[in-house]
Amino acid sequence: MSWAWLLALCAVSYALKAVGPVLAGGRELRPGARPVLDLVAVPLLAGLILIQTLGDGQRLVLDPRAPALVVAGLLVWRRAPFLVVVLAAAATAALLRAAT
Amino acid sequence: MAAIADTPTRIVTGAVSVGLGVGLYGISFGVLAVAAGLSPAQACVMSMLVFTGASQFAFVGVLAGGGAAVAAMAPAVMLALRNAAYGLSVAPFLRGRLAGRAVAAQLVIDETTAMAQAQDEPHAARRAFLLTGVSVWIFWNAGTLLGALVGGGLGDPRALGLDAMFPAAFLALLVPQLRRPGAPVAAVTGAALAVALVPLAPVGVPVIVALAGLVPGVLVARGVRS
């Protein structure tokens, strides 16, 4: 793997992160913008969760990641600590893969 | 995670526990990166400087599938686009000198934005953002280093269920935010759009389109307030 592409990715990803904090850091926003920005992470996280649970490249598959997410959901609902949620999801997927 | 939203101690506890969780999938990133042909040094530089997990996994995933580095750039950059939206979202409470903001910008990721948005006032949001950012940066890089050095000795990351950690962690970050008006409909719309597009669009595109879930979410939020 060449370093050039890796460093290009470093530069692009930093530039994307920096747009807001560098150009607009500390500024008050127009009143209408706040409810929009407060919700930004919600649809993105929801999308990522399902893509990373059901996606395999461009295919949708049902594999042990799905029951692992269900277990995680139950634990989040029961207000389990973050680490317990993450470890229980991994254990669920690992056990199901070992069993099949 | 609603429980760790309020006091300073709880913000620290939340930041450390999110960091530890991320460190675990940092190990799986290190293992996968080296298996995909990156040197351990490249894996570590990537985690320090790119520092956005989903893009990094996408990048090494394309390489592992035999793709060229240039082909790996596209999904990685598509996935990194959401950090621009996160950056705008956290910008109002990132006050201070340009140099400080430029450093803080590197910490703009899913985990830090979610932890900040779970707070009710700007001071706590800023604290949660910075503490979570530093904690995640340390653990993510420690995990990457460990994974890259141990590599195949750990076995197949999938057999250990490490791939199931990422969505579980995001779910734990998402749920506390669903109390906001409009958030449930934004989440459902975003998730539905993303899943529907997985078979149709190149890797990285579906998650960007998921952002459109903001539209019904904001409409509902406005309706609630007026």
Could you list some keywords that capture this structure?
heterodimer, A: 100 residues, mainly alpha, extended, B: 226 residues, 2 domains, globular
List the helices and strands and how they pair.
The complex is a heterodimer of chains A (100) and B (226).
Chain A: H1 3-24, H2 33-38, H3 41-54, E1 55-56, E2 59-60, H4 65-77, H5 82-99
Antiparallel strand pairs in A: 1-2
Helix pairs in contact in A: 4-5
Chain B: H1 8-35, H2 40-49, H3 53-64, H4 69-80, H5 82-90, H6 98-105, H7 110-117, H8 122-150, H9 165-174, H10 183-197, H11 205-209, H12 214-225
Helix pairs in contact in B: 1-2, 1-3, 1-8, 2-8, 3-4, 5-7, 7-8, 10-12
Characterise this structure.
The complex is a heterodimer of chains A (100) and B (226). Chain A is mainly α. Helices cover 73% and strands 4% of the residues of chain A. Chain A has five helices and two strands; from the N terminus they run H-H-H-E-E-H-H. Chain A has helices at 3-24, 33-38, 41-54, 65-77, 82-99; strands spanning 55-56, 59-60. In chain A, strand 1 (55-56) and strand 2 form a beta hairpin. Chain B is built from twelve helices and no strands. Residues 1-5 of chain B have low confidence and may be disordered. The radius of gyration of chain B is 18 Å and the shape is globular. Chain B has helices spanning 8-35, 40-49, 53-64, 69-80, 82-90, 98-105, 110-117, 122-150, 165-174, 183-197, 205-209, 214-225. With 226 residues, chain B is mainly alpha-helical. Chain B has two domains: 2-176, no CATH class; 180-226, no CATH class. Helix content of chain B is 70%, strand content 0%. At the A-B interface, helix 1, helix 2, helix 3, strand 2 and helix 4 of A face helix 1, helix 2, helix 3, helix 4 and helix 5 of B.
